[in-house]
Amino acid sequence: MMRSLFSGVSGLKTHQTRMDVIGNNIANVNTTAYKSQNMVFSDLLYQQTQAASGANAATGRGGINARQIGLGAKTAAINTAITRQGSAQSTNNPWDVMITGQSFFIVNSGSQNFFTRDGSFTIDGAGNLVMASTGYRVMGWQVDDETGEIQSGVVNALQIMNEKNMSAPAEATTKGIAAGILDKNDTNVHSKAGLVRTMTFYDGRGYLYTAQFSIHALSKDGQYYVQLDDIIDSNNQSLVDYYKLENINQIANFGSGGNITETKVYSLPDNVTYTDGNPATFKVDYNFGEILDGFSNSPMMGIAGSSAEVKTINGAAAADGATLTAGQTVVMGGNVTLDKNVLETEYGLIYDGGKYYYQPDGGARVELTNDMTDANNVTNWGEVLSKLSGNADAGATADVQIDTTTPLTIDDKGSVTLAFTAEFKAAADIPAGTVYNGTTKQFASTLNYPDAADPEATKVLEKAYGLHNTDNTTYTINYISPNGYASITKNETYGGNMLVFDTNNGKFSYVGNPDQDAVTLDFAGTATDMTGETVDLGHFQDISIDFSTMTNVNNGKTSTAGFDPGDGTSNNLGSGRKPGALIGVEIGQDGKIRASYDNGYSKLLGQIAVAKFANAAGLAKAGNNLYKTTLNSGDFDGVGIDITSDGEGSMESGVLEMSNVDLAGEFTEMITTQRGFQANSRIITTSDSMLEELVNLKR
Prior knowledge:
With 699 residues, the protein is α+β, with helices and mostly antiparallel strands. The strands form 13 sheets. Strands 7, 8, 11, 12, 13, 44, 45, 46, 47, 48 and 49 form an eleven-stranded antiparallel sheet that branches. Strands 14, 18, 38, 41, 42 and 43 form a six-stranded mixed sheet that branches. A hairpin with a 7-residue loop joins β27 (355-358) and β28 (366-368). The longest helix is centred in the C-terminal third of the chain and has 33 residues, at 663-695. The chain is elongated, with a radius of gyration of 51 Å.
């Protein structure tokens, strides 16, 4: 009976322990990331009153079992449901983080690492990421200042809100990328201006600029050159003008340049004829606008149209073969027809009863007739004609005369036709040996090429082919066929970079020089302006521009090629930026903490590392939602892991993990525990009654 008493006592103790576990679970039903526990019973020691015996074949007697009396129950184990995920609770606090999976946050008390599933973090006064409940620092990995990438290793406390992270200082652009499709059939790459593209970049003070580039097609398939045309500031002003310089090359050099030899076939225009010979002969027929100053700007000559012809050359009648030299006077004649509306609205004449009247300012109305013998009448018509001539701007002489030898006519609709003469000066750059062709009524010159003695040889090329010879460009005629087609070699020195593609597949080959993927926009440290003053350009940094991803393929005659700052990676290193202030911080699923700034810049501040154990249930609870390692949990190596490295875990910001206590299960366990406790108490009371009866035997 004494044994039963103590068995009951042990049962009461174990059920009390179980009730303690249940009570703790229920008490922590709302504790963040709490992991519920359960208790396992086992029987206690046994008292053996008789040993077991085996069967005896000699006597024919069978074996008997041992006789054992149990001495009660004990606590076998208290297990923690540490791998069972708690539900998610949204808090909308960006510093609250929930782990999914079986990992643990690493926190440090200052002397020891602990582990927790409680992700209710905050920022302390020193800018550290800490547990809101204990102030223990959250551990993780720092960022390499040079690469901007996470530098994994032994975990350190994450100081998020330090001074260098509160703002993003200005940074000059150092890298650029040229990418997209360059279509060879795009008309822009064959134009004089080329395919114009821009790239924005920052200087060291955070000021924004725009570099203007152009891409030009060469005659050989797959070959282009890229040049820097200008740099514009944020006020849309060219830096050449801003710094009072002569050209953009004083600010930046984009490639050392080179000599490109182009061979193209041109056809002669209608006004140029070619005669084969040695030397070759070109005959160029000029229109009046090319020979006479002001002719193209004269409204009257435009109205006269094909009726305009040469009357005299340097005072002599225009005859076939007459020579014209620079500065000589050429008198033109022609007819103009002005309708009634033009005469009334443009020249202030009055049309009344089939007649025209001229009324000078403040004077009486005077009739204009077709009598060319009336000097006053001719003078009045001349006033109208003088307005029409545009003498003030056209460059013709002041004398625009009515041709009195040709009658003036006024038709029944009020249209007036009159003949006139006007004087022009021969242009200063008129080719030597220009003569008047009486048959075509044009001026023409016959020039030889090649002929070193002929100073007008270059003009033949300009007139015949529309080429514009500049200081850094030369042209050479290789061959001219009898049907008027010429092969011309153009040798041009340019200030850019060769851009070459593989014509088999359109992939990039090189830029600048063979085996080179990138070229540098090289800024000068200083420049000398037109006043002789030194301009400091030290706030610019050289920009390396990578062309390796550009392709030369068909895209419907449209090029998508363009320039962007940065290296094109996820962090877009080298893109530059203006100064910026911190406007937000977020924690990604991989635990990486990124800061956002009002200049559009995003910066990686660090990464929360996690720990994973071979036997997480072997961790010891240390209170305050903390765990520590034991001999049966496995050790922490001090480095930690990326939570996404195994593909099973992640972090969610703005969410906390709730307790995984199952209240329904706990209440059920509480009922069975209560009944067990009640039954064990009955053991004691019944044993007590039996002892009482035994004591009463002495009476």
